[in-house]
Amino acid sequence: MPEPIIILGIESSCDDTAAAVLVDGEVRSNIVAGQDVHRHWGGVVPELASRAHQEHIVPVVHEALRTADVSKEQLSGVAVTQGPGLIGALLVGAGFARSLAQGLDIPLLGVDHMQAHVLAHFIRDGQAHSPPSFPFLNLTVSGGHTLIVLVRGELDMEVVGTTMDDAAGEAFDKGAKVLGLPYPGGPMIDMHSRDGDPYRFRLPAPRLMGFDMSFSGVKTAFNGIVRKGVSQDPAFVERELPHLCASLQQCIIDILLRKLHKAGRTMGITRIAISGGVSANTALRAQVADLAQREGWTIHIPPLAFCTDNGAMVAMAGFSLFKAGRFAALDSVPHPR
């Protein structure tokens, strides 16, 4: 009987320090330490993020191994996010992973953060959900990236659509900041939207060729609506908060679904998936499911624990790289973009 492939995954691309252990693709632990320090500033401060990663990485990795009941000597490889992300934050994870792999004399696996979000669909966690079959289209939506990806295989992916400026998650967070909501703003927008009219305030929907998207105009227009409203009535935001949140959210979702719909029909692909932090948004999940039902598509969304940044998705990507024999050099460096 072959030895199991045991991968430790380490994620430190932004403001979550995460580690997970996967055994033959099945998650045994998935530990995440957030960074509350950024709430005071209304967004991620790169230098503070790097310092927090340095503080958290050893206890997080230790807890991941302990929870999985795996010793470091049993590891087959160490997977780590190489990018994209904040360079200082990436360096903390990469430096730790490189040292651990070298000390144990096991392969280092350099993971692309966006590929890891796609491969989150394939993590086995003992629950009844099946991964998409190849090929499929994946809408990858996060605070820093918005992509439509054609996925032909575990390590065979092509970006067919992207944002020309801001990411959808950034539009959520910046809109929340304008409204005075605490960071991270995306979940706050989602929560307040449930009691709002999504068409109370009209926002522009940019028209771009192909499958590309844009969100900068949405941010600017939303900021203008809020400023004008407050200038006329200081209580404007408080009175209209649910409707403002719902209108912003609906505009962003409309842009995403319009392009996903176009890509699916144009390419003739009926297997659709979404992943990334914004895929946790309840309205996006519901409306993607409605679109899939109308079009006769199958829809795949990872469990919530694997949507936001986490070590399990990095370990899953590392598992695929390990099987393919694609190991990283010990002198490899992170790439922020």
In short:
With 337 residues, the protein is an alpha/beta fold. It has 2 domains: 6-126 and 307-324, ATPase, nucleotide binding domain (Nucleotidyltransferase, domain 5), CATH 3.30.420.40; 136-301, ATPase, nucleotide binding domain (Nucleotidyltransferase, domain 5). It has helices at residues 46-68, 87-104, 113-119, 168-178, 185-193, 216-232, 236-267, 282-295, 311-324, and strands at residues 6-11, 17-23, 26-33, 77-83, 108-112, 136-141, 146-153, 156-162, 271-275, 298-300.
Summarize this structure as a short list of keywords or feature phrases:
337 residues; alpha/beta; Nucleotidyltransferase, domain 5; 2 domains; 5-stranded mixed sheet; 9 helices; globular
Beta strand count? 10
Strand order of the largest sheet: 3-2-1-4-5
Mean pLDDT: 93
The CATH homologous superfamily of the largest domain is called: ATPase, nucleotide binding domain
Which outline best applies? globular
Q: Classify the oligomer.
A: single chain
Q: Distance between termini?
A: 41 Å
Q: Beta-sheet strand percentage? A: 15-25%
Structural class: alpha/beta
Q: Provide the CATH top-level class of the largest domain.
A: Alpha Beta
Task: Describe the model.
There is one protein chain. The chain is of the alpha/beta class. The chain has two domains: 6-126 and 307-324, ATPase, nucleotide binding domain (Nucleotidyltransferase, domain 5); 136-301, ATPase, nucleotide binding domain (Nucleotidyltransferase, domain 5, 2-Layer Sandwich), CATH 3.30.420.40. 43% of the residues lie in helices and 18% in strands. The chain is built from nine helices and ten strands. It has helices at residues 46-68, 87-104, 113-119, 168-178, 185-193, 216-232, 236-267, 282-295, 311-324, and strands at residues 6-11, 17-23, 26-33, 77-83, 108-112, 136-141, 146-153, 156-162, 271-275, 298-300. It is globular, with a radius of gyration of 20 Å. The mean pLDDT is 93.
